[in-house]
Amino acid sequence: MMAGRIAFQGATPVLAGVDAASTYCYLLAAEQRRDADTWGVHLLDAAQQGLDPDYTVADAGQGLRAGQRAAWGDTPCHGDVFHIQRQCDGLAHTLARLAQGATSQRKTLQAKTGRAGQRGPDDELAAQLALARQAETQAHELARDVRTLTQWLRHDVLALAGPALAIRQALFDFIVEELAAREPADVRRIRPVRVALQNQRDNLLAFAGVLDGKLADIAQTHAVAEPLVREACLLHRLPSTSSAYWQGWNRLRATMGGKFHTLVDAVTQAMADTPRSSSLVENLNSRLRTYFTLRRHLGGAYLDLLRFFLNHRRFLRSRRAERQGKSPRELMTGQGHPHWLTLLDLGPLQPQRA
Q1: How far is the CA of 94 from the CAs of 39, 148, 186, 188, 189, in angstroms?
Q2: Burial class (CB within 10 angstroms; exposed 0-12, middle 13-18, buried 19+) of 78
């Protein structure tokens, strides 16, 4: 399951929850607050209706997490990698722009120094140019280092296809330590990101523990060594058009023989069933903006109808073939249903007459 929150019209919050497998929206409610009590009431009501997730994925909002603890007890709430990656990317982009600004400032002073040199030496401009060159070098080094660290975080630590949890934790700690070492160079910008990473490590990497358990089960079920299963997982890091991908593919197939295709399919499915971000809630947010603009005031009745429509409207297309031609409700329950207008006693639909 995934849970999140969205805001609209003067930052009035709408609490939202989406099932990761089926995209079924189990919560869509406008509230004045997004504190623990408000979340807890809605989540407790959902539990009374039969909602019992293995775990949820949410951002670092304390209200949601406290409300979930109150309503669902020990149900884990994993960290959302989407928001922390965006925060890290924002830091890297900002430092890169500052480095470009330092270069522009150095070029401006250098041009002034050249013009002054035609009239005679200017010790003050020369000193300013020396300082500008030093600031430029430091800015570019800082931007380069932070960019490298954020790329490691995205591609090696928080990527779905990656090493075991213990290795990810060590890499994560290394990145945090390196950011801390560079923090004095720009405390105002680097410190918030470093603190956010440090405080959220276990939540952000919780998905890796879930995936490790699934890969271990696959290895046991198919009587295959766990390193081979991990290698099949790591294949997903490579583009299928690369030579490295097919070299790894052929090496695994030669090693595992007839078990190869079955095992790769099992690994692919395990990865698809291991969500690590609240991107579905963000996607829901972008879809809802269109509907929100149709009404100045949004009440519970309108949101209930909108949620009903979203849950019963069938997908015309999807990247996941199993979703095409089915609604979120059909995907969740495994049972078909009539057109959503028919369910509202407004159908069945009839062709219009001339």
Answers
A1: 34, 14, 11, 12, 9
A2: buried
Tens of pLDDT, residue by residue over 139-168, are 999 999 999 999 999 999 999 999 999 999
State the Cα–Cα distance between residues 88 and 96, nearest whole angstrom.
Answer: 12
CA 222 distance to own-chain centroid: 31
pLDDT at 5: 54
- CA–CA distance from 286 to each of 8, 10, 76, 291 (Å)? 11, 16, 27, 10
Distance of CA 44 to the CA centre of its chain: 26
pLDDT of residue 119 exceeding 80: no
Residue type at 75?
Answer: T
Q: Which residues, including other chains, have CB under 8 Å from residue 145's CB and lie 6 or more apart?
A: 178, 182
- Do the beta carbons of residue 169 and residue 201 sit within 8 Å? yes
| SS3 assignment for the chain | CEEEEEEECCCEEEEEEECCCCCCEEEEEECCCCCHHHHHHHHHHHHHCCCCCCCEEECCCHHHHHHHHHHHCCCCEEECHHHHHHHHHHHHHHHHHHHHHHHHHHHHHHHHHHHHHHHCCCHHHHHHHHHHHHHHHHHHHHHHHHHHHHHHHHHHHCCCCCCCHHHHHHHHHHHHHHHHHHHHHCHHHHHHHHHHHHHHHHHHCHHHHHHHHHHHHHHHHCCCCHHHHHHHHHHHHCCCCCHHHHHHHHHHHHHHHHHHHHHHHHHHHHHHCCCCCCHHHHHHHHHHHHHHCCCCCCCHHHHHHHHHHHHHCCCCCCCCHHHCCCCHHHHHHCCCCCCHHHHCCCCCCCCCCC
Instruction: Please answer whether residues 17 and 24 qualify as being in contact, where contact means their C-beta atoms are separated by less than 8 angstroms.
Output: no
pLDDT tens-digit series, residues 281-310:
777 877 777 777 666 566 778 888 889 999
Binned at pLDDT 50, 70 and 90, residue 264 comes out as: very high
